[in-house]
Design a protein that fits this description.
By secondary structure, the chain is α+β, with helices and mostly antiparallel strands. Helix content is 46%, strand content 26%.
Length: 249
């Protein structure tokens, strides 16, 4: 087998990192790489590890040149990133669950006390109206906290049941704000209920992951769309559309 017939991209570099000679694979994929430094190189959205082997006149002499072999690490790098992301989400879920529990206890006390005071004040009084607003606000906060607790459980108990897909989407929307960040959000949920048989927590994770992946795939600012609609005889979830920053068509 000749130097040009080797399947891996291989080149010979001088001590300054300039390419002196390369095989056919290198010339096809890396013809624009005339100078190589560092431990990794990116080419056409792929990641390559740079392995260097010195060429010496003898064991004690300094290298005259280097044989460089590029190993494709794209797949392993993606797998490592996915593992890191899973571990990160698990840690965030545990932290969120702890915070939600800490907030839920005082909110329960606030709601209970406001309900007791509501029963003891005249319905047409300003105090009663203020207490009613306190009770409603604390109920909304408790609803958000309960959603956060459900989201942080990690699907330990898989209970499949029929739920409105729109309701699952609404429960997930507060968590999507952290994912969409610098992007505009376009949320359009169907007016009618969309009953689906799912495990709600896992469906929330699916929605969150789709939106998060769409945001990561967009290199420029733009718009993330989340929509539901009914396409008889099925409820259809068109979860994510991603568009770069440009005039809308």
């Amino acid at each position: 087998m000749t130097f040009d017939e080797l399947a891996e991209p291989i080149a010979i570099l001088d001590h300054d990192g300039r390419v002196l000679r390369s095989n056919a694979h290198w010339r096809e994929e890396f013809r624009d790489v005339l100078h190589l430094q560092g431990s990794h190189i990116r080419q056409d959205e792929r990641l390559y590890a740079v392995e260097k082997y010195p060429i010496r006149m003898n064991a004690d002499a300094p290298p005259l040149s280097w044989v460089v072999y590029l190993r494709d690490e794209t797949r392993s790098h993606k797998l490592k990133s996915q593992v890191v992301q899973v571990e990160k989400m698990s840690a965030i879920g545990q932290l969120a669950g702890h915070i939600a529990h800490e907030l839920n206890n005082p909110l329960t006390g606030i709601r209970s006390l406001s309900q007791v005071l509501l029963s003891e004040t005249p319905p047409d009084s300003q105090v009663h109206r203020d207490l009613d607003e306190v009770e409603r606000a604390s109920a909304r906060c408790q609803g958000i906290i309960n959603n956060l607790l459900d989201f942080s459980k990690g699907g330990i108990e898989h209970k499949v049941r029929v739920m409105d897909l729109n309701e699952i989407a609404r429960r997930t929307l507060p968590f999507l704000k952290s994912a969409t960040g610098r992007f505009r959000s376009d949320i359009e949920l169907a007016e009618d209920e969309l009953p689906v048989k799912v495990e709600p927590h896992l469906m929330q994770q699916v929605i969150f992951n789709l939106v998060n992946n769409a945001c990561q795939a967009m290199k420029e600012a733009g718009e993330i769309g989340v929509r539901t609609r009914l396409s008889p005889p099925w409820a259809f979830w068109r979860c994510v559309t991603a568009a770069p920053e440009s005039p809308r068509t």
